[in-house]
Amino acid sequence: MELRHLRYFAAVAETLNFRRAAERLRVAQPALSKQIRDLEHACGTRLFDRNTKRVRLTDAGTALLDEARALLTRAEALPQLARDAAQGRRGRLTLGNSAALTGGFLPAALAAFQARFPEVEVNLVEIRLRQQQKALRSGGIQIGIVAELSDGEGDEFECLRVVRSPFVAVMARRHPLARSRRVSLHDLASQRLLAVAPDQDGRGHAAVLRELFQNRGLRPPYFRTVDSSSSLMAMVAGIQGVSILPGVYEDRLAGELVTKPIDMAGENTFTLWAVWQKKDPSQLVRNFVEVLRKRTVRRNAG
């Protein structure tokens, strides 16, 4: 059974006249009759009761007509659907996410993207930052969010900076340091410092914080690690220690937590990059990156 069989069947069913249906389709009437017989053979039942005076749909023909119309309508829409998909106006886009860090920019970017491309389905996959490049290579995601690119990976990935945020000290409102307007690394080194446990490759929150101390000639203190950022927030709120986090976390802090600027020499910024494979030809990816780019420019200008 092919689409032409359904098209011929629908024409006869709607006109209940083989001659008028043949004229509508611009085919010879004998050829039309053969196509209908072939369709009836494929279905294993008669679709029309016909004689020299009239043509009438059988019960099977009536049931088939609604389905045939729906299939023909869908088939007619397929070329436009393919064109829309080629332009990135339809399809499915899968993004890597790290909710603790992307809350400051991703929701607004998703809303702007949905307004421009409402037919695109966006999926978020929660993955630790250090695992997102691996997910890009495997095809698990199409755009990832990372804090750093390893040497040589610039040849493999394109990137766009989406976050540039200073590190801040995070503590409970009742913590003694909360009375200070600013704190120093020396102040923090004397406290019980908390960090999220590292990834399998050994990198992670604590490693980044150690570098903050080492790069300023300070001996890194001991960091007590917890399983997740949510656990870290709970521990800090319970005055079990303090932590150092990128300022992008400030929107997620509960009322019992406060942040303080950190006095330190040199670079004191945390950066996030949107990354995607250079070889990825997807217009979906290019469209989302363009939305991110415009929102990043607007946010920086503001």
UniProtKB/TrEMBL annotation:
SUPFAM superfamilies: Periplasmic binding protein-like II, Winged helix' DNA-binding domain. Keywords: DNA-binding, Transcription, Transcription regulation. GO terms for molecular function: DNA binding; DNA-binding transcription factor activity. CDD domains: PBP2_LTTR_aromatics_like. GO terms for cellular component: protein-DNA complex. The keyword Transcription applies. Residues 1-58 form the HTH lysR-type domain. PANTHER family: HCA OPERON TRANSCRIPTIONAL ACTIVATOR HCAR, TRANSCRIPTIONAL DUAL REGULATOR HCAR-RELATED. Belongs to the LysR transcriptional regulatory family. This is Hca operon transcriptional activator. It comes from mine drainage metagenome.
